[in-house]
UniProtKB/TrEMBL annotation:
Residues 175-186 have a biased composition (Basic and acidic residues). Pfam families: IF3_C (PF00707), IF3_N (PF05198). Residues 83-167 form the Translation initiation factor 3 C-terminal domain. This is Translation initiation factor IF-3. Residues 6-75 form the Translation initiation factor 3 N-terminal domain. Residues 168-198 are annotated as: Disordered.
Length: 198
């Protein structure tokens, strides 16, 4: 995003001026707008260059840039990074192996991660894609309380792929639970320190 033009860099004969508190001043010549900005010790900032005439606002540009940077940093901090974990299955999977792999999928979903499940076909198994589809549907049903199928099973060469995402409220609940656990741990540490001092 390009920075807006300010003060002397605004090259139009007149502008629609907005005051520092958001009040409408009206359409004024650029010289008058610059004089008002100088008198109030503020910057004249072009906020809507495509309007006719362009809209300019009186503001402290340095403070405005600082606050915008702060908001962008907070937005990045609050952004959750989505991780896609992968789990590979064979068509003729042993029941115990299936339970182990299902346990891993459950753990990933509880951690708030998406899971890409791949069924690999070998040799003649490629002629029976419906068996891979049934296996993926069974797994999706087994973990349905933790996640939802985001991408239905699709044949991809020798593999069949499906993506399961955690429920949105599940991810939020897990984050809240982790925060509460950390707070509880810090509270118990401070209580232990107080008893040690007494």
């Amino acid at each position: 995003m390009t920075e807006p033009r300010i003060n002397d860099r605004i090259r139009v004969p007149e502008v629609r001026l907005v005051g520092p508190e958001g009040e409408q001043v009206g359409v004024v010549s650029i010289g008058e707008a610059l004089r008002l900005a100088q008198d109030s010790e503020l910057d004249l900032v072009e906020v809507a260059p495509m309007a006719r005439p362009p809209v300019c606002k009186l503001m402290d540009y340095g403070k405005f840039k600082y606050e915008a940077a702060q908001k962008a940093r907070d937005a990045r901090r609050n952004q959750t990074l989505t991780v896609i974990k992968e789990m590979r299955l064979r068509l003729k999977i042993d029941p115990h192996d299936y339970e182990t792999k299902k346990g891993h999928v459950v753990r990933f979903l509880k951690g708030g991660d998406k899971v890409k499940i791949t069924v690999m076909f070998r040799g003649r198994e490629q002629s029976r894609p419906e068996m891979g589809y049934r296996l993926l549907q069974r797994l999706a049903a087994d973990v349905s309380e933790l996640g939802v199928v985001e991408s239905n099973p699709k044949q991809d060469g020798r593999n069949m792929v499906m993506v399961i995402a955690p429920h949105k409220n599940q991810a939020a609940t897990d984050a809240a639970r982790r925060t509460a656990k950390q707070e509880k741990a810090s509270a118990s540490e401070s209580a232990n320190e107080q008893t040690a001092q007494a």
